[in-house]
Design a protein that fits this description.
The chain has nine helices and seven strands; from the N terminus they run αααααββααββββαβα. With 271 residues, the chain is of the alpha+beta class.
């Protein structure tokens, strides 16, 4: 079951942890590293950082830069994607050093703002990328998004790191919340079936799903799962975020091979 702490203090610490890790990564990159393509269509390493700068700028109340909708890439299908691309396009004018400075400045401002919120404000209704919830839920998603984009950057330049810890656990939790939908709806696991996903590291976790009318994550299974899928936690996140082809990554499937491969092929759930 989900394991990351979700108090205001914990979420602020997870964001700080991730943004600090990204800042340290960026300060060690060579000029050519910033131009390396990543798994997000059309985005370089610099664009990944620009995306985080843009999102946190919007949350700080800074208007999205204007842009021509007709010029947006074909993979942009919604308002969130349009806003993301406008920020990325605008920030391509910045050098890596300037972009890092903007990242440092806006994340420091956002952390200060978050620390100033009252408990009631954390619990207030809020828009989030997954629908209406409270502001706390929104910040869970911000940890997830920031950590995933850090991993995109690291994968592109061949510098793995920050694969475990509270922010990584929060990212795994975000996917775990969606596993009922992924396994029951997208993968079509049959009624009365059970699935175990064994994450072998850096985050180590056993996630169990039972289909009983509908699929749901459970704490434990009464019997051996119909199918067990073993894979690394960074690979698990990459699959869930549509970053890699399931046929090109190391996945061990025990039990129902067809169902296991169908689940792996349908893990991607992010927009």
């Amino acid at each position: 079951m989900t394991s990351a702490e979700n108090t205001a203090a914990a979420l602020i610490a997870q964001l700080d942890e991730t943004w600090t890790s990204i800042d340290l990564l960026g300060r060690g990159l060579a000029p050519e590293d910033w131009l390396t393509p990543t798994a997000c269509p059309g985005w370089t390493v610099a664009d990944q950082l620009a995306h985080i700068v843009g999102t946190e700028s919007m949350l700080a109340g800074i208007p999205t830069p204007p842009g021509e909708t007709a010029d947006l890439p074909a993979h942009v299908h919604n308002d969130i994607g349009r806003a993301n691309e406008h920020w990325v396009t605008e920030l391509r004018r910045s050098s890596p050093a300037d972009l890092l400075e903007q990242f440092h400045r806006i994340t420091a401002q956002r952390l200060e703002s978050l620390r100033a919120l009252t408990g009631a404000q954390w619990d207030e209704p809020s828009w989030t990328p997954v629908g209406k919830a409270d502001y706390r839920r929104f910040m869970q998603i911000r940890v997830f998004d920031s950590w995933v984009h850090e991993q995109d950057m690291r994968t592109a330049v061949g510098r793995p790191g920050h694969g475990d810890g509270p922010a990584a656990e929060q990212a795994i939790d975000e996917i775990e919340r969606a596993l009922g939908y992924i396994i029951g709806k997208r993968a079509g696991a049959p009624d009365a079936s059970s699935v175990t996903i064994e994450l072998t590291g850096p985050v180590i976790r056993s996630i169990h799903v039972v289909v009983d009318g509908r699929a749901a994550v459970v704490a434990a299974l009464p019997d051996t799962a119909l199918v067990t899928i073993r894979l690394g936690s960074v690979t698990f996140v990459a699959l869930a975020c549509g970053r890699v082809d399931p046929a090109e990554v190391a996945i061990a499937v025990e039990g129902d091979q067809e169902l296991g491969q169908r689940i792996a092929a349908n893990l991607a759930f992010t927009i």
